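Much of what follows relies on a compact textual record of a protein's fold. A record is reproduced here so that you can trace the correspondence yourselves:

. . .
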Amino acid sequence: MTPTSPEPRRRSRRFTLVAATVVLALIGASVAMATAALDRGPRVRAVTGDAALAVSQRDLTLTLRTDQPLDDSSLEGLRIEPEAPADMEIDGAAVRVRFTGLLAFDTAYRIVAPELRSRATGARSTLDYAFTTPPATVTVLERAGLFDRADDTPDRVVRHDLSRGTETTLLAAPRIQEYAGTPDGVVALVVDGDGSARLQTVDGAGVEGTLPTPGRGDVRLLRASADAGRIGYVFTGPAADGTAEYTNALFIADPGAPDAAPRAVIGIDGLPLRTDAWFFVPGTSYLVAESADRSLVLVDATGVAPPRALGQLGDLRGILPGTTSVVVSSDAATSVLDLTNGSVDVVPGAPAATSTLQSLVLTPDAFLTWDASAVTRSTPEDAASVLATAPGGERLQEVCVSASGRHVAAGSVPDGASIDGYPARADRVGRSTRIVDAESGAVVAEVRGTRPDWCA
């Protein structure tokens, strides 16, 4: 019988010793990491809400989610730099900041919590979240002249940075009837010399493309929403396949899916929605439209939720700046409809639908009226004041307010200017637009062009 060698037993003992050492090391590391985790204070793991929208939308909420539930004492010293109106609270593993007013344009902000405290361990840390708001901008359409001009000078869609005084050409094409800003670029209705039209797009990288239309016909009231990720327009004409005829039918398209066919918006009656007035609701995926029977309809632009009837409240005038409410005018009064709760509040003193005055609502208690020579601001408390006047030798033709409600665009044309002859949205040659402060009337900028994006 052969004696057993002691070598395997020694190797086994060495393996056991090494394994035990590794296990002990792993246990030690785990204990060390657990101890470090217990000692480490809360950290921000995610942020929800787009702070950039706080320059144009009130009551926007920014949520900073942490990796640990927070003690209520974490609220002590929580602040915004520079100071901004806001409601702040600790909610479980989150810091919620609701901006109750509008933030300044082109400004660096910080949300600072000097002492976040873990509810479970008491460990502390510091929160310092920084963001910068976008500059104030206005986009206009610069037409190169008459529609039937002989040269090939293109029309341009130009974005003006009011904070820095610079401009950028977003799109140039031979004849642009109207345009709208998309989530990362612009879409324009380009009309060819034979009267046919196409939807031309350009994205943030400068890549151009086209979007299909329902058929050969009239396209107008072109609008876009970054929140919904959709564009929309009203179409009149036969379907491309000849199976239907549309009259003032609202269509929705996804600029991110350029090969997809546009979709007719279906109304309460199950038929394509006919409208002469419609708007996207800021900060949502919804749009509101006035149907052919003058009733208002709330529609999910993504097509997920069914349409909702809002009632016959008057003519749809637009969106109240900085809100998700809409402005309506009846023969009796001009009012604000709050889409969040359905309340309807009269704007004191604002012209009703029967008035011959041109007007728009700035806030629930302030409105503008204008004629060819001047724009006037009115409130119930203060006497009416002149906000802007037409330059010498010109007359006002279009007035609209920015999405934030802080600026007013006053478009004017030279006396005696000829009409440019564009088939659907003709304009006067030589239009210019002045941007003024909505409170003081101070002139912020003067730009060449027409159809500011605010006027959509």
Q: What stands out?
A: Confidence is low (pLDDT under 50) at residues 22-27, 29-37.
